[in-house]
Design goal:
Helices cover about 35% and strands about 25% of the residues. It contains ten helices and ten strands. The protein has a six-stranded mixed β-sheet with strand order 6-7-8-3-9-10. Helix 3 runs parallel beside helix 6 and helix 5 crosses helix 6. The longest helix has 14 residues.
Length: about 250
C-alpha cells in the first residue's frame, strides 16, 4: 500500500524551480530516505509534504487523500507527525512535561499550559512509557534546556510519537551529532519504525544505509535515481555526485 504519493510536484520561487515534477511513492511500513546535496530541493519537498509550503503545481496524496496545499494541522490530524532540523523546545519545561503536553494536545484540552498538574497526571504513565522507549526514562525531571544535543533530538522523537502517527517524517534527525549520538539515533529509529512508515531527509550515508528500505536521490530539484540503497549507491552519477568512490 502506498501511504504517501506525489504527482509531478513543483515548487517555484520567483521563476526558480526548486522542485521539478517530483514523483514519490512511499510504501507502508518502509523507511524512505531523501538524499542529495544542499540545494537539491529536499527541504522544500519536505515542507510541501507537511503543509508548510504550498506547491506551485502537482499533487500530494496521503493515505489516498488529496492533501495538496493543506495546512500542517490538517495533515497532522490525518496521522502524520514530523520533526525539524533545528530543535525547538521549551527550555524551562521538564522532559516529562513536554511529553505530557504533547499527549494532552491530542485531546479536547489542546495545548493548555495553565492546566493544573493534576490534569496532566492523567498522561503520566503514557509519558513515562514514551520516555523509556526513546531512551530518556531517567531524564524526565530535567529541564529540556539542560539536555545534550542528542537527547534533545530523542525528545523531539518522543513528542512526535506522542501523536501516534502512522507516518513519521524526520528532517535531518542526526544533523550536528557526533558518532556516538548518531549510533543511538539509528538504533532508536530502528525501534520506532515498527508499525509505522518513516520518511527522512538525511545526509549521513551511514544512517541511510543502516535504515532505509528505499532511497530517492535529488539533484537540482529533480529525481536523479531511486531504489534500494545497495542499488542506488552503484548508480554512476550518484557515486560521483554524492556518495564518493568509497561507496562504489
Amino acid at each position: 500500500m502506498v501511504v504517501l504519493e506525489t504527482r509531478n510536484l513543483v515548487k517555484e520561487f520567483r521563476g526558480f524551480r526548486a522542485v521539478n515534477e517530483v514523483n514519490l511513492h512511499v510504501r507502508e511500513g518502509e523507511v524512505h530516505a531523501l538524499v542529495g546535496p544542499n540545494g537539491a530541493g529536499k527541504t522544500t519537498l519536505f515542507h510541501m509534504l507537511t503543509g508548510f509550503l504550498k506547491p506551485s503545481a502537482g499533487q500530494v496524496l496521503i493515505f489516498d487523500r488529496d492533501m495538496t496545499g493543506a495546512p500542517p494541522e490538517r495533515i497532522a490530524r490525518s496521522g502524520v507527525a514530523r520533526s525539524f532540523q533545528i530543535t525547538s523546545l521549551f527550555e524551562q519545561l521538564t522532559v516529562l512535561e513536554h511529553v505530557e503536553l504533547a499527549l494532552q494536545s491530542r485531546t479536547n484540552l489542546g495545548y493548555r499550559f495553565w492546566r493544573s498538574e493534576r490534569v496532566l497526571e492523567r498522561f503520566r504513565r503514557q509519558s513515562l512509557d514514551l520516555l523509556e522507549q526513546t531512551g530518556l526514562g531517567l531524564l524526565g525531571h530535567k529541564p529540556a534546556g539542560s539536555l545534550a544535543y542528542g537527547q534533545k533530538r530523542a525528545l523531539e522523537l518522543a513528542l512526535a510519537l506522542a501523536l501516534e502517527p502512522r507516518l513519521l517524517l524526520l528532517d535531518e534527525p542526526t544533523a550536528g551529532m557526533g558518532m556516538e549520538d548518531v549510533s543511538r539515533i539509528i538504533e532508536l529509529i530502528g525501534q520506532i519504525r515498527v508499525g509505522r512508515t518513516v520518511v527522512m531527509v538525511e545526509h549521513n550515508m551511514k544512517v541511510v544505509s543502516s535504515l532505509a528500505d528505499h532511497v530517492t536521490v535529488l539533484q537540482y530539484g529533480s529525481v536523479l535515481a531511486e531504489g534500494p540503497y545497495d542499488e542506488v549507491r552503484r548508480h554512476p552519477q550518484v557515486i560521483a555526485a554524492y556518495l564518493g568512490e568509497s561507496h562504489a
